[in-house]
Amino acid sequence: MPDYLARLNAEQREAVETLDGPLLVLAGAGTGKTRVLTTRFAHLLMTGRAFPGQVLAVTFTNKAAREMRERVSAIIQRPAEGLWLGTFHALCARMLRRHADLVGLTSGFTILDADDQMRLLKQVMAAGAVDAKRWPPPGLMAVIQRWKDRGITPDRVTPAEDTDFAGGRARSLYAAYQDRLKDLNCADFGDLMLHMVEILRNHPEVLAEWHRRFRYILVDEYQDTNLVQYLWLRLLAQGHKNICCVGDDDQSIYSWRGAEIENILRFEKDFPNARVVRLESNYRSTRPILAAASHLIAHNTGRLGKTLRTGRNDADGEKVRVVSLWDSEEEARMVGERIEAAQRSGHKLAEIAILVRAGFQTRAFEERLITLGVPYRVVGGLKFYERAEIRDAMAYLRVLAQPSDDLAFERIVNTPKRGLGDTAMRRMHEIARAEHIPLASAAAKLVQAGGLAGKARAGLSDLLHGFARWREQMGREGHVVTAATLLDESGYTEMWKADKSPEAPGRLENLKEFVRALGEFETLNGFLEHVALVMENDENAQGDRLSLMTLHAAKGLEFDMVFLPGWEEGLFPHARAMEEGGERGLEEERRLAYVGLTRARKLAIVSCAANRRVYGNWSSSIPSRFLDELPIEHIQREGSAGMARNRVVDMPSVFTGASGLMARKPRTIEAGAWEVQARPSHAAPLTVGERVFHKKFGYGTVTAVEDNRVDVNFEKSDPKRVLDSFLERA
Fold first, then answer.
1. Residue 614: band (very low, low, confident or very high) from pLDDT cuts 50, 70, 90
2. Which positions make up the binding site for ATP?
């Protein structure tokens, strides 16, 4: 047996050696799917089943394609050349160059980037007399890209697929956009696949040519394919039918990007006599982590089913920790304390990660890590105060606090659009330079002198009057209420509400978190100074750093220690996912939780907070239903779930033993910094009409009781539903 096969377990070897006919490899988290895929590729070449150019290997990222090429070269012990190996779009671009004339292009067509696509679409909308303010171009672009992801050309848009964008004109605008692309000999990224699918559908001789070329097809991350990718693969696989798809239905978490979990669920129907090989030996995580993840995902009905078992020799490990906390601030302190304890134990920060459900959650942890001096990096995105919407909001507040801040004023004066073009901006700068006055004062002079007309004058005048009004309001109502009012009345939040791109809801959540952060400071200037120092202190952090990212960005990564905060109803599972997707949305949220747990090699720490603050107001939270779906025997509950304050706990053994870490030496730390005092049970259940006291909300009267959840009308806060363990009889 060749060495490259001898290194595989029985399941992996079966997947590699099953060469003929359709094959689905269900590869659970940490089961070695990349090894299987690359070894199968190399095995085809080593056994002479195919020449390099006869294998089509498809990945989702350039990084994955590079790694596959390197691994295949290492196995066959020579450079792997002449391969058809790459991402869906790269391979389709390569194919389309050969057949561009069949879709009205030449082989030298240009591939537009996102900015050029948007610029072209705006031109098309302007030519069609569509009001871009009422119907924002990003919304139409999102609709067009969804159609392309589903393999739908303009002539295939049915009434069921159509939208009411611009009074039902989305389809005609899509057609005009496509015509304009062809006139310019251009294609956008969606076209690369859409055009190739149309060519393969409509030109049997071309399809036959590719059937002759490709004897074998290998596909990575099949659960993430969208409909047009699925159609392309099915068309190409009709020849030899030797298609091998590797994926995990339990890790399909990208429906918002067009991914269709049904592609992997119906594989056996699409390819009769298909063979299914399950990779279930996990070499990443300990037994308690795998048991918790498997028990959780078993609650999903839309899955093919598999059960992960550990393949590690040191499978026994710490139970999954479930920590209940009083509020989000305590949650951030708990995470910070445990990270510091890990550092003191000799653990590398690079092997620790905080995985959040929503991007806005990173702020509290970023600020805590900066306070503690813990270096970190945000993976797959910008740090909180570097995000465009936060920089815009900061600029508004800087102008509010300091009208002479020209850089801030210039950033927001036309955001959202107020009809100010280059000419208007040039006039403002000329007045400011000539009279040595701030740009905002120059803008006021320009308006008063009648130097602007129409929309530009009205928009700039409204903004300047707005700042005068908001400064007066801040003196009366404070900076938190004023900031929320400013973002609404300036049209800034409305701009993002009208934006239909997938990123827009997250930007709105970040703005809410931004206003919440303001509530932690007594003055606006204090907040602005704090943010400036945060940005300065965090510049160019290098070396050993902790990773902070969303659960979506964490897929494919692994760490010794993983924190999973915010497991509360509405946050995780996310309310928007369930509102838009119903049961399908809930199941995808559960798959996301499964992905989070299986990122941990040695220790997973899940946490939830009883209270979170939104727009300066405290709201009670209900623990996530996912916590109830974790197996009791494999979790350890801490915090308000039953741990007494100031209890002494052992640091987990993850920090000791292997990899040069210290030999096991129990450490004790005071848990009071993060654990909530567990109140004794009420002698009798609370009843309607009773007067109660809540630590955050003060005194109130019980209006309804449902199990351990109590509705209370608070005297100095809005009515809320809280857990009875957080109430005292007054």
1. low
2. 27-34
